[in-house]
């Protein structure tokens, strides 16, 4: 029976990874398929997975749609392709075709049609990311401009006089007309106390109350594959002390972890119990479980807003206000704009990180392989559906970005050959093409092995 938990954990890891990858691959390959079809190129096979086919059907256009036995990718094979990677042309297959039939092959299609068909895969990955992120923004809403309490979160000392619907006017004498000011008030607040003085607008007037620290050491989320995740810390846990030293603010926790230089830390945790609806807003202390965990922070390279990276020791947890902000409905245009900006940030941060690894500025352990990605998908799925959906958006952006690298075997490599053809007026010779394809295959497999070794041997 001891092997059962390990088996179930492995099954969960593999299952969540397959689900995430299958969605991303299906969208990527559908991009190739549909733009190829619009461009007049016939698809013979659309396969989700590799190897022996499990189920298949042929549609009215003659395309075979199939699910194959090895769910680690997929492909679209167009008419006349030598293989599933569209790496070359099957000379025998195209030899007897009429001019009209040859036009329906990748080899016989105009350059613009081939380039559009190849580029569509990564583009559809980016569109998936944008759609998913925009959907999450529409679902979660946007915080109102004025800091207003939506729901009270569970804290060991309770919420003091703070109530849902309160508009926070000032904290410790500092005016808080917006969330930027509220963050400044949180930073300026005294750190050695559990409570602060609030002025709130309530029921048509203003009143002075006592409430919790604005940014208490409460975990709003736990990063997959982090020290906090390994210690089974969860969103909602409150860290009350570190190595016996009481902490009242999340920033104090961050400072202690950073100053520890990677040394193990013993955290005292308060975990709220299930309470009746509305009990979280009670001034009285809430029921909860208290326990301790010992964990070792991980050295982490974090992107900076102005570019570059900063190396810090982290336990892998995020904080939040002592309340859930009141939200308004997010506009569709606002959600799409935010999603595009977020996707672009993921791409630029990935590019900056890759360059920093090549330059030796940050650890190459930041590059993960299949095992690391699978563990990340399992952790995201365990955290809840919104986190898993967010992970799919992140991974879809990464897949689209990676496929645009000018490496033969990848979509970017094919686009590189088409650029060559556009400039030179003809495609590269078969000898050059085959040599570059072999080099590209070697590079791709080297990257895969490097990522896998990081998964196995990096701390």
Q: Ranges with pLDDT <50 over ≥5 residues?
A: 275-285
- Largest sheet properties: 4 strands, antiparallel
Write down how many β-strands occur, each being a DSSP E stretch of 2 or more residues.
18
Mean pLDDT, all residues: 87
Question: Strand portion, in percent?
Answer: 15-25%
Shape designation: elongated
| Radius of gyration, whole Å | 27 Å
SSE map:
Elements: H1 3-38, E1 43-58, E2 64-78, H2 91-95, H3 99-103, H4 111-140, E3 142-143, E4 149-152, E5 167-171, E6 174-175, H5 179-188, E7 195-202, E8 205-212, E9 221-222, H6 227-230, E10 238-242, E11 245-246, H7 250-259, E12 265-272, E13 288-295, E14 298-303, E15 309-314, E16 317-318, E17 323-325, E18 327-328, H8 332-358, H9 370-383, H10 385-403, H11 411-424, H12 430-457
Antiparallel strand pairs: 1-2, 3-18, 4-17, 5-6, 5-7, 7-8, 9-16, 10-11, 10-12, 12-13, 14-15
Helix pairs in contact: 1-4, 1-9, 1-10, 4-8, 4-10, 4-11, 8-10, 9-10
Which tags fit this structure?
single chain, 459 residues, alpha+beta, four-stranded antiparallel sheet, 18 strands
Q: Can you give a write-up of this model?
A:
- It is built from 12 helices and 18 strands.
- The protein has helices at 3-38, 91-95, 99-103, 111-140, 179-188, 227-230, 250-259, 332-358, 370-383, 385-403, 411-424, 430-457; strands at 43-58, 64-78, 142-143, 149-152, 167-171, 174-175, 195-202, 205-212, 221-222, 238-242, 245-246, 265-272, 288-295, 298-303, 309-314, 317-318, 323-325, 327-328.
- Strand 1 (43-58) and strand 2 form a beta hairpin.
- Helix 1 (3-38) packs across helix 4 and helix 8 (332-358) packs across helix 10 (385-403).
- The protein is elongated and about 85 Å long.
